Amino acid sequence: MTETASVDRYFLAMADPYRRGFIEQLSRGPASVKQLAAPTNVQLPAVLKHLRVLEDGGIVVSEKVGRVRTYRMRPDAFDVTTNWIEQRQRDMNAAFDRLAAAMAQVPEEKDH
Fold it and tell me: Which residues form the signal peptide (predicted)?
């Protein structure tokens, strides 16, 4: 998967408030589907769809033991976007550095 596709999938996964809520819960530790659904008042099939989007986005992983599916955050869940944001910051800083260098080349006007 390309970096652009990874970033797109991540932001798609993060675009929904329910999914962000699940991420907040999972950042405190693993949880079952039932545990994740409890505070949302959302039906289990809808919760599973949201969790599938988070899994496709590379943010969470799941494991099924018996009849219980447990989700947890991936240790590298935020690496793709962190790298993307840091690159945008480097690009922006380089642009400001070029602007500052160009401005330093322009002679100041003297008031007469």
Answer: none
Contact 23, 40 (CB under 8 A): no
- In this prediction the pTM is 0.75
Strand (E) or helix (H) holding 65: strand 60-65
3-105 is a CATH 3.40.47.10 domain: no
Instruction: Give CA–CA dist 64/108, Å, rounded.
Output: 69
Residue 62: which residues within 8 A CB-CB, separation 6 or more? 51, 55, 69, 70, 71, 72
Residue 39's Cβ-side half-sphere holds a number of Cα atoms within 13 Å equal to: 12
